[in-house]
Amino acid sequence: MGIAEIFLAGLCLNATCDDDYIPSTSIKLLRFAKLEQELQTETLVITTLQNGELSGYETVNDTVVGTGIAFDIIKILQDKYKFNYTIVLPEDDTFLGEQSQKTAKKLLETKKVDLAVAFLPIIENIRNEIVYSTSFDVAEWAVLMNRPDESATGSGLLAPFTTQVWILIIFSILVVGPIIFLMVLLRARLCRDDKSEVYSLSTCLWFVYGALLKQGSTVNPRTDSSRLLFSTWWLFILILTAFYTANLTAFLTLSKFTLPITTPEEIGKKHYSWVTNRGNPVRDKIISEKNDEHIYQDKLIKTIGNLKVFANHSDMNILNTFVKKRKMMFIREKTVINHIMYQDYREKAKNGVEEEHRCTFVVAKFPITKFSRAFAYSKDFKYVELFDYAIQRLIEGGIIEFKLNENLPDAQICPLDLGSTERKLRNTDLLLTYILVGGGLAVALCVFLMEILWRVCQRRNKQKKKRKPHQTHFLANNYNAIIKTGLSNLTPPPSYQTLFKPPFYFKDEGGKKTNINGRDYWIVNGKNGFRQMIPLRTPSALLFQFSN
Question: Does the record's keyword annotation contain ATP-binding (predicted)?
Answer without folding.
Answer: no
